[in-house]
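Aggregate trends can hide what the representation actually does to any particular protein. For completeness, the protein is quoted in full, as a sequence line and a line of structure tokens.
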Amino acid sequence: MEERQVSRWARRRVASHLLAGTVNPRRARSAATAMYRALKSSAARLPRASLASIFPGIERTEVRVRYSPDQGGGSLADVITLAQAVKYLGCRRMFEIGTFRGHTTFHLALNAPPGSHVYTLDLPAAGVSAAKLALTDLELIQKSASGEWFHNTECQPRITQLFGDSAAFDYSAYQGKMDFVFIDGGHSYEYAMADSLTARSLLDSGGTVLWHDYPTYPGVWRCLEELSGAWPGRFAWVEGTALVVWKPDWIPDGNR
């Protein structure tokens, strides 16, 4: 079969799918959702960058990954990227806002150097009604357990599990002491902004912040694009992921 015939077949299949969607509301919503997701990616304004251009030589960094279809909280590409970043940077003091099932927490601890420690903060389901700021995506909060991925594993001794509202938590014991902060907490604009300001206060000199879910959730999307015009250094959206990186001492290309 010639390639032109194959291409025509593909176009007909797409046209048939769209036509079916006009008479099937459920399929129409599915197609509209997929299109919206694709358009969000095109509309996002943070500059895209490969992980290797952000951290030269990181492609030679080997990491350990434990996969599960029920991992929760991000794609496999996101997890590998985070694991490579902490190993490449040699992070020893890490703070995560948003534990969920603990899949990311586990991999941060698994790939960091000996002597490192991860602090992870999560809002328990019982704390939803008392949350200080607006919450979205309650199905991700109202869960029966938090952090089960690292419980009873080799990594648990290097993880401190904290509970509380990230907008009201007392961070005084951690401020200025972290060399890596990962933000994957509330997706509303208010929580994304509050957690971002917190992350900056937690960093020591030369630290790194990574966010998850850009531009997946509108609140995270708007927050990061606003911060990119207000904070020093440079923001970059890691290609092939939902992750954004920021370093306060990161000088934009062309200004070195």
Observations:
- Residues 3-23 form the longest helix (21 residues).
